[in-house]
Structure formats: structure tokens, C-alpha cells
Amino acid sequence: MYLLGYDIGSSSVKASLVNAKTCEVLASDFSPKKEMEIKALKTGWAEQSPEIWWVNLKEATRQIISMAGIDPKEISAIGISYQMHGLVLVDKDLSVIRDAIIWCDSRAVPYGERAFNEIGHEKCLSRLLNSPGNFTLSKLAWVKEHEPENYARIRYYMLPGDYIAMRMTGKPCTTASGLSEGIAWDFMDNAPAKFLFDYFGFDTGFVPEVVPTFGNQGSLKADIAAELGLAEGVPVTYRAGDQPNNALSLNVLNPGEIAATGGTSGVVYGVNGDAKYDPLSRVNSFAHVNHGDATRVGVLLCINGTAILNAWIKNNVAPEGISYAEMNDLAATIPIGSEDISIIPFGNGAERVLSNEEPNCSIHGINFLRHGKAHLIRAAHEGIAFSFKYGMDIMNQMGIETKTIRAGHANLFLSPIFRQTLSDITGATIELYNTDGSIGAARGAGMGVGVYKDAKEAFSTLKKVVTVTPEKKNEIVSMEAYERWLKQLKMEN
After folding, report:
1. Contact, 354 vs 138, CB < 8 A?
2. At 280, which helix (H) or strand (E)?
3. pLDDT at 163 over 90
4. Which of 310, 335, 338, 372 suits 42 as a labelling partner, its CA being 20 to 30 A distant?
5. How many Cα atoms within 13 Å fall on the side-chain side of residue 348?
């Protein structure tokens, strides 16, 4: 018996196969090997064709089935993780109307701000736990105003994971967790936020059926099963946005537990037992995957410019042909503080932690006689860690203590400089585990289909591979570098 998990990212689609009985990962792979295209037709825009998600999902599926050498008929359930906040529109035939407006697109900022001010801050925050901001319903408001011909064709609006599940099963549905990540869930009414739909003039019929996060959400259609090389009737039993799913992957389900990622964007995600919110909406609160009878709210800090900055440095600054591991080695030759260079990493769209400002990335303190490529590499890693610290201080004000951070052993957490800097300036112990989003989605599918009785059983084989603790000797110099970085940030904003 096997479990199949997908992680639909904006860079690639990853798939994993897990042995349901032993929890062993049999195969994992991703497609494409080069990052998927993000279309930026105008400054601040970011769109992707849902078809490229599907094409790469098929290829990733083919690869892992071949690697594992299993009989696809033995796959018992499918789980889906996906890039959050995206807008996919389908018509009455369930065909895509236009390219998806994805998470890092910032065109909807004015629509969310206007709604926040006109509806009232207190009402939005007390019921949505957020400003409507640059989220999914605000993106839909942009479509309504600028593309009335497309808006008139809408039957359902969906998140990327909703679309992929519908493509597999033919069943349009979503979850409360998904609706809340699009700022469309009313925590007081425990239902879609009718007052916000009414404000924007949207039909609540645009919302697909709301189903539980764990459980049967539809079964694989015969034609799709043939297309994927799988068996007809396999149920989709779990879906969640990438950050709630990352928390699940790390068995972060209870108040006080914290998960983090350092992918294209960087995220710290803490679980609260109360429906709290940031009055300035700089960090955002969503229904966690296990929100229900007990309140489980995920508080999300998002930094858009993290691994994308590291990739930019690799492609435009580092010696040609260098690997990320070699970049880490080069950066390690430079002392803490990068000899007074500071990099503000906010160069990938509107930053919620900066109240949806879009300052772009900036580099400060370069001396042409002292500094070289290695300084810039180290300053980038430190600047990303400093941006995490900046946002985590806001989370601390909401009652989420940062004592231990769990993350997958991947992406920026492979950088010794980034993770040690983050540990030193926050005082937190960082634990890295052998998991990722697609593996978590597979185990979530096992929970949804009833293979596992609870999360403890599902994640019994989760292994800690690296532990990073704060180093007292670094504390003063690291904090001095952070204070210098913070001063530059305040000067720009």
C-alpha cells in the first residue's frame, strides 16, 4: 500500500511515494529541472499557466513510478500541497479562463487596502483575522474591474491545489483552510465571508463545495488515471497550502510549535491556540490544517525575497559555474557582518511584513577597495536571516515564542551561514528534518484515508538530521550587524 504526494510550487512540481505501512519514502522527484516560467507582463505582475503545473505533475509522476518500480494499482490515496494565495478561474465547463495570478503578484494591493478601509479595520480583523490585502479575493476584484469579459465567464474561483484536485477528480471543491488563506473565511460565522463577497460584488456561488482538509475529496477519473499512469478511483484525501502543509510535514500542529521554509520565499509559520491577529496585518493568520473543534490558527510571516535573492546572487554575482555549496564555502571566508555590507532582500513583489510596500532589494556599504563577491554572498544570507528576525519579532508580540524552529533540510537551510545567523540573532534552536512538502502531502493523504490513526503515527519516522544552536561568541557581532541592517531598512521606509 502506497501514498502519493504532490507539491505544486511556482518553481517546480515535486512528487513523492511513501510506503504507507513503514512510512518509508520510496521515491521523490521534481519537474521541470529548470524553474517554471513566471510571466511578468507588467511590473509587479506574476502569472503562470495552470497547464504547466499539470504537464510537470505528469512528468514527476512518471519519474517516481519508474524509480520506485511499484504497481500503481497499490497506491491508496493522493495528497496535494500547493502554492498559496493564487487565483485560478474556471468556466461552466471547468476549463481555465485565463492564466493564474499567483502569490507574488502585487496588482491587487490597492483593492485590498480600499476594502480594509471601507469595511473597517476592526470588522475585517475580528472576522477574517487579516486585511483583505493582496490575497485571492482582492486579485479577483482586479479581474472584475479590468477583464469584465473573463469575469462574466466565471463558474468557480479556485486556489492552485483546488484546480489540480478538480483536474484529477472532476469535482470542484475547496477547504476552510484554503478559503482562509485567500482571506475568504469568516472565523465568527465559520463559513465563507459573505460580507466581503458582498462588498466586492461577488457571487458566493463562485465558491466550490467546502470539504474537510482530511477525507475523501473525490476520486481519480478513468481518463486522468490513464493520462497519469495510475489506477482509476484512487481518492484525493488531503490538500493544503504549502506553508500549512510544511508545518504538517514537520508535525507542527499544536500551539507554540513553529515551522520554517527558505524556498523562493521565506516563511516562518507558528501555531496559535487563539484566533489572534496583527493589527497592522504584517503577518497573517489562517485556519491551520487541523483547525476545527479546537482553535488552531497558523500565523504566517512571509518574506518574498529569500532563495530567489540567493539564486540572483548565484547567477549575477558569484563566479560563473559555481554551485550553491561552493557559494557557501566562499561566503564562510568572510567574517560575521560581511565587513559592514548590508543587503535588504525585499526585491520580489509587495512585502506584507512591510505593510505591502515594495521597496525592492538594495545593497549598502560597498567599499570598492575592500569588498568582493564573497562579501556580497555572505551579506545576502545574513540579510535574509535579518528579515526573518524582523518578522519574528512581530510574531512574538502576538504571543508566539520562538524557542525552537523546525525546517526541512533543504533550500536556504542548507546554508550554514543563514541558519547559524538566524539562530544567533533569535536565540532559537533550529532543527532540520528529512522531509519536504510532497512527502508531507503523502503522509497527509494517509491521515485522510485512515491509514494512520493520528499525526503521531503518520510522522513516527520523521528524522532530525541537523541541530543548530545559538553560539554565545557570535551574539554581539551578529546583533550589531542586525542593528545596522535595521537602520538601513528604516531609512528606506
Report:
1. no
2. none
3. yes
4. 310
5. 22
